């Protein structure tokens, strides 16, 4: 655990990419295989699940430290992170352990299986044998909240350096459904080829946000299509079976059984990249219709008929078992068209239609119409570009429609956690309804750190009432709230729920009596819900 | 009549007609130490320890300042006062006030560990103890002094080996000298920010064992000081002043560095958990050692700390004071959040 804690400290102490890659690469060259494998798993979001409740951990830690629970909670409020609070309030460790990371993860799993008194004792013993930083990490693993400020791209770079292979190969190997229990370091990273596992997806290529279409250069070099508002998915048809992956690398085959029929129309050795959309007649339903299907492992019949899905395909990654990602987009697109043209309407597959244009002005106009077509903007793809890995600037751009906006006043504030502990970052906003203020959304992003510091100082001076961690503040600060969608919601006082709400601007210039009203929200719901 | 009362000018002794660390002008002020939130200009007359006097004079200029030695009793009106080591910074004191057989002690700022420069804190038995509690939550537990020495010198040596400057932010009075005292001067030269150097010179002239330092001036040839350690005020770390050191590794020494969120928000490479205030075990130990049944807490997590003391059987109260606290000032642009977090509670 010492090496792992040292790695974590090195990563935590720098914001410089090169220093992080160097720290990781050093670790991947030196650590034992089992630890390396777990590190790759943890850093790619494959955390062990939480098996002990946060409440139990809190109670045990407070009891061990001889502190009342209210004082634990008071401390938690200041620290902002449960695992950190626990590791700080416990008395210093009296023993020292030389066990590696893999040992502690195994130990954590053993303990989860034990009955209560032994489990509690096991955790207390663990805490007592780990010094500060190691104790913090162990507790992070216990609570299932381990995170680290390292992107997968960055880790991939370090792995590529340490194992001396191309980054694209490492990225591909890390895709899919593996865990340190089902594989080994050698098998995952060194032996064979990434494609040996027939269910393994290709890394997704991601688009950058386009700010100025003039950056595109010659319009002739580009292909345009709608930016569909669904779930990005990769459909793999190999050896008579199909596998569906989400961009978050979740295997979601069973959640969308409609796509099983794709094998009736497409040959094995085909991999499609596209958008899963709820579909009716000749157009997509809004994202709201897809929402109930996201969390479900199995789908009730009723949902299959109210919100049937299709894959709106927009790229072909594999044909006849050949990886065609290096081919130019124009070529892949032509193959995709010939593969999908002429399929009957009952096939759960659609070809993402091109948006025709000759000039940049044509594109600007098409973007303004995108919302009417049930899309959230345009996608622009360079005709000559290969299918890349991850988010790279230059060949794929997303050009989203402007968000819907509303001016609202802040009425509640709550402190954030982790890096944002002690800063008020989570706010509740209201619109007016006659003389009343009606809360309608929360938002916690969109401001700079400096603005958060400023608003925090303001909240402290203008708190009207405290409800636990929540401060009710004087309704004075007006913000422009941006969001991507709106739907009716009986659970909310205002009757609406917003999609991706965030603060676009702090409107210092705007007095409270000029904020928008509930009627404005209702009109937006009628138009876009 | 109470030995001490709490007024909008500061802590007041009616029997002796004097204030302790007042924040508004009064005829006679007793000062616990020279930090700017405790030692303010405009008082008619001042009394402080002989060890604190040079810095107070340096900061407040031409004032009427009388001095007193640790442990020396002095009658002021109907009160007898004496000053006792607080261990906070060199010369800092707790002030003991006795009136008609009843003894109260004002802690000022204090820490119970020996930093090697300040006269170490000692308990003063009393009936009522007015204690700061800047870090009055159980999450605050300081890194031992010897471990700090190793951490700081290792960081410095590693930077020096790469030819990088080490830029460390520490409050100019107390923290900066404590760091200087821990440094191993054989690693590389030690440079100082002007604000740090002037206080350091005052303390050096007083005979404190501090290593040789060079003040950073525009004329200074930085290339002649490769791998230097630069001690600066925390607010200077992110200023244009700091740019001259190029790709320096940065650090802050503060009790707040115990919290990862604050450490990360501070944006420095390292955070050394070093405070001149008492940590949680320190506060509890100090209060126990005074034997006082009555405790007033001030500055910091007052509400929580009072509730804790009450649960431990003390008769506890909160005193609102205007002390901003050097730790908070030491944050430069400050965790405004933390200053303000405490303000409404202190006012309650």
From TrEMBL, chain A:
Q: Which UniProt keywords apply?
A: ATP-binding, Cell cycle, Cell division, DNA damage, DNA recombination, DNA repair, DNA replication, Ligase, Magnesium, Metal-binding, Nucleotide-binding
Q: What is the lineage of its organism?
A: Bacteria, Pseudomonadati, Pseudomonadota, Alphaproteobacteria, Rhodobacterales
From the Swiss-Prot or TrEMBL record, what is one GO molecular function term?
Answer: DNA ligase (ATP) activity
Could you say which EC number(s) this protein's record lists? 6.5.1.1
**Which protein is depicted?**
DNA ligase (ATP)
Tell me the superkingdom of the source: Bacteria
Which PROSITE patterns does this UniProt record tie to the protein?
A: DNA_LIGASE_A1 (PS00697), DNA_LIGASE_A3 (PS50160)
Top EC category:
ligase
The record, for SUPFAM superfamilies, names: ATP-dependent DNA ligase DNA-binding domain (SSF117018), DNA ligase/mRNA capping enzyme, catalytic domain (SSF56091), Nucleic acid-binding proteins (SSF50249)
Domain ATP-dependent DNA ligase family profile, first and last residues per copy: 302-433
Q: One matching Pfam family, short form?
A: DNA_ligase_A_C
Q: Which reaction is this enzyme known to catalyze?
A: ATP + (deoxyribonucleotide)n-3'-hydroxyl + 5'-phospho-(deoxyribonucleotide)m = (deoxyribonucleotide)n+m + AMP + diphosphate
InterPro entries from the xrefs?
ATP-dep_DNA_ligase, ATP_dep_DNA_lig_pp_1105_fam, DNA_ligase_ATP-dep_C, DNA_ligase_ATP-dep_cent, DNA_ligase_ATP-dep_CS, DNA_ligase_ATP-dep_N, DNA_ligase_N_sf, NA-bd_OB-fold
From TrEMBL, chain B:
Gene3D superfamilies in alphabetical order: Ribonuclease Z/Hydroxyacylglutathione hydrolase-like
* Key words, A-Z: Exonuclease, Hydrolase, Ligase, Nuclease
Q: Name one GO molecular function term.
A: ligase activity
Q: Which domain of life is it from?
A: Bacteria
What is the E.C. number?
A: 3.1.-.-
Q: Which InterPro entries match?
A: MBL, RibonucZ/Hydroxyglut_hydro, Xnuc_lig_assoc
Q: Which PANTHER family match?
A: BLL1145 PROTEIN (PTHR11203:SF49), CLEAVAGE AND POLYADENYLATION SPECIFICITY FACTOR FAMILY MEMBER (PTHR11203)
What is the protein name for this chain? Ligase-associated DNA damage response exonuclease
Give the species.
Rubellimicrobium aerolatum
